[in-house]
Amino acid sequence: MRIAVHEVSKGKKGHALPTTSLEIETGHARFVLAETELRPTVLGLIATGRMRPDSGRVTIDGTRNDRDLRRRMALVDAPEVSDPHPGVTLAAVVGEELMFAGLPATPLHARRWLEQIGFAELASQPIGTIKPSVRVRVMAELAVLRDDVEGFVLVSPDRHGGRPEGWWRIASEFADRGFAVLVIVGGSAAAVIEQLPEALETDYPSNATVPVRPLADITGSTTVIDADPDPVDPVVEEEPVAEPVEAATPDPPVAEPVEAPTPDPPVAEPVEATTPDNVPSRASGTDDTATAHPTPTETETETETENGAER
Predict the structure, then answer these.
(1) Which of 120, 162, 172, 243 is surrounded by the fewest CB atoms within 10 Å?
(2) Radius of gyration for the chain, computed over Cα atoms and rounded to the nearest angstrom
């Protein structure tokens, strides 16, 4: 089976999904880079024949047949479309998928199926708390239970955390079992997958589209090289902002005039000097007056005596 997605896009000016081309083949596990929250799901729906693109086309074995594409390709763990509610137990998720596959789907059958793949102890655990690699294993195994399924598209397994090596090797294992596998990932996961030995040693590109440009670092974003100059500009702009802060620091001159008004001693000196000088002067003046008066008094007395005698 060979699926070709040729220049498909979705939304006005490709906002929902920009123009994308890729190929999926039986026996190959490939990944494709799709950023933002919406685009991975849109691409998964289009690649499995569950949504019509606004432009471009999707063919399976050279023909356009959406019904055949939906029957032979499963869509695994797509947000808001085929991902289970995080609060549902793993046994309940298994039971529902067993029912879709036309198999006995009682809680007992679900637990037995989990026991067969080695996860019986997780049956009563909410799927939102399952390790990412275990989640991918269980969801992929359930997807291929249907007789007509020959491959699947796994949507954004990196959103659950964990190391990309874990779920990528599970995807590669399904490819070795004869399934066509496409994994839609973000930039960071794509950068890690490209460096894995199994990705480097294969004779076919693990990237479903054109080879990814060499990345500047392990972040996986191909726009890192273009974005490098941008953070430099704000740094340069911040330098002049620091200059006015340094210029505004001359607050010490304000403290100097505060120290200047301290010449209070001159005020205290005249007060202390005036008070004692005036008081004693008055006292001494009183004494002098008292001392000076006796002379005139005696004279007056003599005069009065003389006058009295004369009188």
Answers:
(1) 243
(2) 48
Q: For the sheet containing 2-10, what is the strand order?
A: 17-25, 2-10, 55-60
As to burial, measured by CB atoms within 10 angstroms (0-12 exposed, 13-18 middle, 19+ buried), residue 48 is: buried
Rounded CA separation 207/218 (Å): 17
pLDDT of 192-244, one tens digit each? Answer: 888 887 655 544 456 655 443 332 332 333 333 233 333 334 333 444 444 44
Alpha helices by DSSP H, listed for 248-293, are 252-259, 265-292
Helix, coil or strand: residue 153: strand
Q: Of 72, 79, 94, which Cα lies nearest the Cα of 141?
A: 94
Q: What angle do CA 126, 38, 231 make, to 5 degrees?
A: 110
Contacts of 263 (CB under 8 A, 6+ apart): none
Model confidence over 168-184: pLDDT tens digits?
999 999 999 999 999 99
Report the distance separating Cα 123 and Cα 230, nearest Å: 49
Q: Phi, psi (5° rounding) for residue 4?
A: -120, 120
Read off the DSSP letter of residue 65. -
| Amino acid at residue number 269 | E
